[in-house]
Amino acid sequence: MASRLQTAFPGWLVMWSPWRRTFTAFASFTPNALVMDEPTTDRLIDQMRMVERRPLNLAARR
């Protein structure tokens, strides 16, 4: 499932942690490190979409 999410959401590295029983997503397009953990794919997708919709803070890149 994690590989399907990663394919559906370019710019994200997605993995499943069986020990913690969570999906973890790393954004590769944000100026600062962004890591999200969610127990279900639905919640992770909601969070990923929310991040993708918000404008990037370009001042943080300086």
Describe the structure.
By secondary structure, the protein is an alpha+beta fold. It has one domain. Helix content is 32%, strand content 26%. It has 2 helices and 3 strands, in the order αβββα. It has helices at residues 2-8, 41-53; strands spanning 12-17, 22-27, 35-38. A 3-stranded antiparallel β-sheet has the order 1-2-3. It is globular and about 30 Å long. The N and C termini lie far apart (36 Å). The mean pLDDT is 89.
- Report the average pLDDT across residues: 89
Judging from the principal axes of the Cα atoms, what is the shape?
globular
Question: In percent terms, what proportion of residues is strand?
Answer: 25-35%
The structural domain count equals 1
Distance between the termini: 36 Å
